[in-house]
């Protein structure tokens, strides 16, 4: 219904650009995680516990300088938004989704707790995936399990594999639906 009410500019330019942006952010995050997996296999310093004594301003947290730092911020924001969307899209938590002007207090408290847990896990999540090495004033690099190679390696491999699978599934289904629609109308 929203697509039919959208202007031609939105339908023909806005939606495809937004989809390309999401596709690019997903591909970049998977690429960074794959590079991090290779670093894990080759160098012990790539573990999330690797840099603990670096003080802010003395060590660059990105090999690409300011552009890399900006990319890290964009990717972390993207991961935050996608985890919230994924949380509320899961069948178990769809009942928790707030309703406009009709949300009971228990549901509001449940949403606050859920968002607090998701936001608290985000620094550890991004650090474990190798997207950033910055600690955000927390001592997240001191968790004992971040030093376990197998946990970090499987976590990274799981993220890369499942994200790639979802990406291929969504894109291939969309392309398949468009091809069926295009050939169905002509045939």
Automatic annotation (TrEMBL):
The keyword Transmembrane helix applies. The chain crosses the membrane at residues 12-38, 63-88, 108-125, 145-168. It is a multi-pass membrane protein. GO terms for biological process: receptor-mediated endocytosis; Wnt signaling pathway. It is found in: Cell membrane; Endoplasmic reticulum membrane. Its main location: membrane. Keywords: Cell membrane, Endocytosis, Endoplasmic reticulum, Membrane, Receptor, Transmembrane, Transmembrane helix, Wnt signaling pathway. GO terms for cellular component: endoplasmic reticulum membrane; plasma membrane. The keyword Endoplasmic reticulum applies. InterPro entries: LIMR, LMBR1-like_membr_prot. One of its GO terms (molecular function) is transmembrane signaling receptor activity. Belongs to the LIMR family. PANTHER family: LIPOCALIN-1 INTERACTING MEMBRANE RECEPTOR LIMR (PTHR12625), PROTEIN LMBR1L (PTHR12625:SF2). This is LMBRL protein. The lineage of its organism: Eukaryota, Metazoa, Chordata, Craniata, Vertebrata. The gene is Lmbr1l_0.
């Amino acid at each position: 219904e929203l697509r039919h009410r959208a202007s031609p500019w939105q339908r023909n330019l806005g939606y495809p650009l937004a989809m390309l942006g999401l596709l690019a952010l997903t591909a970049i995050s998977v690429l960074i995680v794959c590079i991090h997996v290779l670093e894990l296999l080759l160098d012990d310093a790539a573990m999330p516990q690797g840099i603990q004594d670096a003080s802010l301003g003395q060590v660059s947290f990105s090999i690409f300088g300011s552009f890399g730092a900006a990319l890290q911020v964009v990717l972390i924001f993207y991961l935050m938004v996608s985890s919230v969307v994924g949380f509320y899209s899961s069948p178990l938590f769809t009942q928790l989704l707030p309703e406009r002007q009709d949300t009971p207090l228990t549901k509001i408290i449940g949403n606050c707790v859920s968002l607090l847990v998701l936001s608290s896990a985000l620094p550890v999540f991004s650090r474990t995936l190798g997207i950033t090495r910055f600690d955000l004033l927390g001592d997240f690099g001191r968790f004992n399990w971040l030093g376990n190679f197998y946990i970090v390696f499987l976590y990274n491999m799981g993220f890369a594999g499942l994200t790639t699978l979802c990406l291929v599934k969504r894109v291939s289904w969309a392309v398949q639906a468009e091809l069926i629609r295009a050939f169905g109308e002509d045939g």
